[in-house]
Amino acid sequence: MWFKAQAQITTPEGINYLGTHNTLPAETTWVQLALLGQAEAFRAGGSAPGVEGLDRLYPGGPFDPLNLGSDPEALAELKVKEIKNGRLAQVAVLGFFVQGITTGESPLKNLDDHLANPSVNNIFKYTAGWA
User: Were both Cys, which of 5, 46, 63, 83 would link to 59 (CB 3.0–4.6 Å)?
Assistant: First the structure.
């Protein structure tokens, strides 16, 4: 199941990515985690190689390559948008997990089923007492 994929990270076969036969080796995940961890360590420490005085809470400097945060008012607005975007993403992922646990199928399979027959394949199919 797609929501149990994290357990495959430590297997020798790696992750079977999106149902293809090309596997993503577990080493790729560990390298990605190490690189992201290093970037977060630089941000949390307030300095990166060649850059001093980074904001510990928000990206900037080398973490803002498009220089979107040069205007203080725009930066304040972008901070709020980032928080709202992150919260919306968390709610969406929670919905995917609940849907996967409830139906036992992937979100794409559920979408295909719903589009094929919307009057039958909907939330009421899995809700107790709404048959």
Answer: 63
**Which domain range does residue 122 map to?**
68-131
The verdict on 72 and 131 lying in the same domain is yes
Rounded distance between C-alpha atoms, residue 34 and residue 28, angstroms: 10
CATH number for position 82? 1.10.3460.10
- pLDDT tens figures, 51-68: 777 776 666 666 677 888
| 124 DSSP assignment | G
Burial class from Cβ neighbours inside 10 Å (0-12, 13-18, 19+) for residue 27 reads exposed
Whether the per-residue pLDDT at 122 is higher than 90: the answer is no
Q: Is the pLDDT of residue 94 over 80?
A: yes
Are the beta carbons of 103 and 126 closer than 8 angstroms?
A: yes
Handedness of CA 112, 114, 118, 120 (dihedral sign): positive
